[in-house]
Amino acid sequence: MSRDALLALCTLLASLSLAGAVLVLRGGLRERLQARLALVTAGAAEMPGQGAQLLALAPLAPSQLALRQRILRLLGRSPHLPPSHAFSLPLVLLAALGAGLVAAWAIAWLMDPLIGIAGGGAVGLLVTYGLFRLEADRHRDALFLQVPDAISFVLRAVRAGLPVSEALRTVAREMPSPTREEFDRAVSHLAIGTALDQALLALAERTRLAEYKFLAVVIALQAQTGGNLGEALENLAEITRQRVGMRGKILALTAEARLSAKILIALPLVCGAAIAVLVPGHLTPMVQEPQGRKMLLGGVAALLIGVLIIRAMLRSAAKD
């Protein structure tokens, strides 16, 4: 099979993959909505007031979980992200498809069409996974910055004489997104009979924030042993405020390193473009000769690996 035929086949497979992904993502959505409406309708007569809302907020059974959600979980998307903090799925699919096609064409042109098809598919999956990880990290960072305010809300409500459950409802009403949505889920769990500490532990598991685990432990210990809950919450609020401030200091201290990393990443691309403009034909062997193509592909792979290593080092420094 000729190179052009394989490239055409690659494009056809990518188009079919996109169409199949769209159908899969759309498929099951109607059934899921109907299942939720059936739950609300069946429970509305027996549970007046907010009963229908609680049933609508309850998670579906595994047999009712849409195939769409399972595929998204395999690709790395968190099922707990609110819509306001999630990337648009069509845009993610288009970005993955575009990156996959470009990678498939480049690898097929530099090396072999069959390797290009496999490499393009791998790049498309990596782009999808990376975008889902990015949205999850952005959501988690936004939650982390709002943790001190959320605990301070709980502290003020407890000192005003309100129970902890009502304090959580206050947070769900008054805090901005995304903390509002997460505490609204915790309040919904309380309304259907979940224990307070278990609802907070579930909140910590969803958000992957240790601060909410601390909050659950503080409230659980106070419920079992007694003591001044207001003082414990005040200490916890101060600790979380210091942790948020420390993270800001770390980001400020690593700003120079992050700028240097961006310069190092852009330097090969800028130098290559400058050489191509100033000395036309100097890089022609890198494109026309098979050995040069392999060297070019190896350089791109090394650059990508370096970007990932630098990013991992910076994230590790920020976490520490």
TrEMBL record:
Alphabetized InterPro entries for the sequence: T2SS_GspF_dom, T2SS_GspF_sf
Localization of this protein: Cell membrane
Q: Which UniProt keywords apply?
A: Cell membrane, Membrane, Transmembrane, Transmembrane helix
Domain of life from the UniProt record: Bacteria
Instruction: Tell me if Ion transport is a UniProt keyword of this record.
Output: no
Quote the cellular component terms of the Gene Ontology held in the record: plasma membrane
Question: What topology does it adopt in the membrane?
Answer: Multi-pass membrane protein
Locate the transmembrane regions by residue number: 87-108, 114-132, 263-283, 295-314
**Which residue range or ranges hold the Type II secretion system protein GspF domain?**
154-272
Tell me the protein's name: Type II secretion system F family protein
Annotated organism of origin: Roseicella aerolata
